[in-house]
Design brief:
Blueprint (H helix, E strand, L loop, with lengths): L15 H15 L6 E2 L11 H14 L15 H10 L11 E4 L2 H7 L10 E5 L3 H9 L5 E2 L5 E2 L2 E4 L17 E5 L11 H14 L2 E5 L24 E6 L1 H4 L7 E4 L5 E2 L2 E2 H12 L5 H9 L5 H25 L4 E3 L5 E5 L6 H12 L1 E2 L1 E2 L10 E5 L4 H22 L1
Parallel strand pairs: 1-15, 3-6, 3-7, 7-8, 8-9
Antiparallel strand pairs: 2-10, 4-5, 9-10, 11-12, 13-14, 14-17, 16-17
Helix pairs in contact: 2-9, 3-9, 4-5, 10-12
The chain binds pyridoxal-5'-phosphate.
């Protein structure tokens, strides 16, 4: 008799987004006229840059001509793209094109990376964090199951709170695989160089591997490192994940990459060689057309157009942040990422504040507790929306504040 993978049964029943959708559809039933403002799901809102569309069309035409048609490409990605990445994203950091693997997204890579490691590996992850890390860890059989406090047994949670500036520090105990996300989703906080140096030292001492997710590096305004390889010694202990999704508007096109330096060895085994073997077996590469578009992001005029989009998203984030701050909200993040981490007023829980925003202001946020227990008492706003929508939302926040004042009186 075939049996299911029982690790899937250990996953908590309530995935964050279906619960949000349910609450939103209940509101729509009750008040069909309500015009909702969605600061929930972190997706870009601007159409593709013109230069990207041109690159897509040109490569599509190549596919229609006998001399330039492409069939299967290399599973690791075309050299033309890997060379651009090494030259631009890792300039001066000594990353070779051969150490770069092109993929269809960081979501799949940050989850699939588990396949390279022994079953007994102890996983550490920031709390709060991108939910994929914890769910992929459970699916990979690295937890005994959910506990009553909303955590998973066997997973080491790295608390990120107001007290430590939402920055995870190396634990006193041993762990094997450590997810780090900088700038972090959901808190929007980027990790400074000194802290990353501590993490590299910890990984060396514990013979652990850092899984560094830099999906939002393009939004960094502070002097926080954009790559873990800016830290001395990181090439011996760290894998880096990057994505074109939020940096270049590729959430619908799908393209990302993972860097595994050849110097990253575990017990003299090369993780690069294992991931290459895995890719050759399970993956036939990202489409030529999409890789050509990704390569176009490195040159004019596409580069400038994309930079202008990021500047515009950052402006929108500042507008929302300043507006919320002027109304007295306690806000974190926002400077190095398109995410604002907002403390719920009056000591409300994440879900209670979510409900208040939805019912009274018709604004959708993501309850922070959905990203981990330390997210309780916060909500995340993703500020990709147009300026005029953000301005409209600020009027609603202002009215909500008046209602809250009246409740408190
Ligand atoms: N990593 C983080 C921290 C994210 O927030 C996201 C998407 O929201 C991803 C990775 C996924 O990126 P991709 O679109 O490349 O799968």
């Amino acid at each position: 008799m075939a049996k299911i993978n029982t690790h899937f049964q250990k996953l908590s029943a309530h995935y964050l987004f279906p619960r949000i959708e349910k609450q939103v559809s209940l509101l729509k039933e009750k008040r069909p006229e309500a015009e909702l403002i969605d600061f929930g799901i972190g997706d870009v809102s601007e159409p593709l840059a013109e230069g990207l569309v041109k690159a897509l069309c040109a490569s599509a035409l190549e596919m229609g001509s006998k001399n330039t048609f492409k069939g299967y490409g290399p599973s690791q990605g075309y050299p033309f793209l890997r060379e651009e990445i090494a030259r631009h994203d890792y300039k001066g950091l000594g990353i070779h094109p051969d150490e770069i693997f092109i993929s269809d997204g960081s979501k799949s890579d940050t989850a699939n990376i588990h396949e390279l490691f022994d079953q007994s590996s102890i996983v550490a992850l920031p709390d709060p964090a991108y939910p994929v890390y914890v769910d992929a860890t459970v699916m990979a059989g690295r937890s005994m199951g959910a506990t009553s406090s909303g955590t998973y047994e066997g997973i080491h949670y790295l608390s990120c709170t107001e007290k430590n500036g939402f920055m995870p520090s190396p634990p006193a105990s041993h762990t094997d695989l450590i997810y780090l996300c900088s700038p972090n989703n959901p808190t929007g906080v980027a990790l400074p160089k000194e802290l990353l140096q501590e993490w590299v030292r910890y990984a060396k001492k514990e013979k652990a591997v850092l899984l560094f997710d830099a999906a939002y590096e393009a939004y960094i305004s502070s002097d926080a490192p954009h790559s873990i390889y800016e830290i001395e010694g990181a090439k011996d202990v760290a894998i880096e994940f990057r994505s074109y999704s939020k940096s270049s508007g590729f959430t619908g096109l799908r393209c990302a990459f993972t860097v595994i330096p050849k110097t990253l060895l575990l017990d003299s085994h090369s993780l690069h060689a294992l991931w290459k073997r895995r890719s050759d077996t399970k993956f036939n590469g990202v489409s030529y057309i999409i890789q050509k578009a990704a390569a176009a992001t490195y040159s004019s005029p596409c580069k400038e157009e994309i930079q202008a989009q990021i500047t515009s998203y950052k402006k929108r984030t500042s507008l929302l942040m300043q507006g919320l701050q002027s109304l007295g909200y306690t806000i974190y993040g926002g400077k190095d990422a398109p995410y604002i981490w907002c403390k719920a007023p009056m000591g409300l829980s994440s879900w209670a504040f979510f409900d208040l925003l939805l019912q009274e202001a018709h604004i959708i946020a993501i309850p922070g507790s959905g990203f981990g227990p330390c997210g309780e008492g916060y909500v995340r706003f993703a500020a990709f929306k147009e300026e005029k929508i953000i301005e409209k939302s600020l009027k609603r926040f202002m009215n909500l504040s008046k209602k809250i004042e009246n409740i408190q009186r």
